[in-house]
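ok so I'm stuck.
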Amino acid sequence: MPRVLIAFYSRSGVTEKLAQAVAEGAQAAGAEVRLRRVREIVSRQIMESVPGWAEGADRMNAQYEAPTPADAEWADAIVFGTPTRFGNVSSELKAWVDSLGGLWFQGKLNGKVGSAFNSTSSGHGGNESTSLSAYNFMAHLGLIIVPLGYGDPIMFQAGTPYGATAVSGQNATQPTENDLEVARYQGRRVAQVAGALATFGETATKG
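replied:
not stuck anymore, here's the structure
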C-alpha cells in the first residue's frame, strides 16, 4: 500500500477541493493518504483585513493537521497543492518545503514520488508555470517528478500535463467536475507510480 502525503495551501477552498479529489484518486488506487494544510505565515491582523481569509483558515485548520517533516519522511509520494502567487507557488507552501532541509541533507527524500497541482484566479494566471515552479524544489529534494501527460481522456478536457488546475475567477468559483476528475486521475497516477517503485525496490533488495 503506497503512502501518499498531500500537502496543500488554500485560502478560499478552491485548492482544498482539488486536494480532496487527489486524495480520492489515490485512495481508489489503494494508497494510504495523509491530507495536510500548511499554515499561514502572516499575522492574524493581516488575515482579518481580507474578507473571509481568517474564517476560512480557522475552518480548514480545524479540519486538517499541519504537515510536518515526519509526514514527508513517512510518505512514498508527496503531492504539493497551492494557489498561484504571481506564477509561482504560495509563500505558505514554500515555507513548509523550506523546513525539509534536514531530510534533504540526510538524503531521506531521494527516490520518493513528487507531483503538484494548483489553482489560479484567471485563465492565464500561472496554471502551468506554478506547477513547473514546484518542479524546481522537487528536483532539489530528489523526488521523482510525476507529471500527468495525456494518459487519461479527461486531460483533453481540463488540467495541464504538469498537474491538475482550476480557475476560480474573482469570486472563488469552485472547481468544475472535469477539474476534479483530473485531480482524481493525478492521485491515481501518483499512487500507481509510487506503488510500482516500492515493489521494484523490494524486489531489488531481495535480489
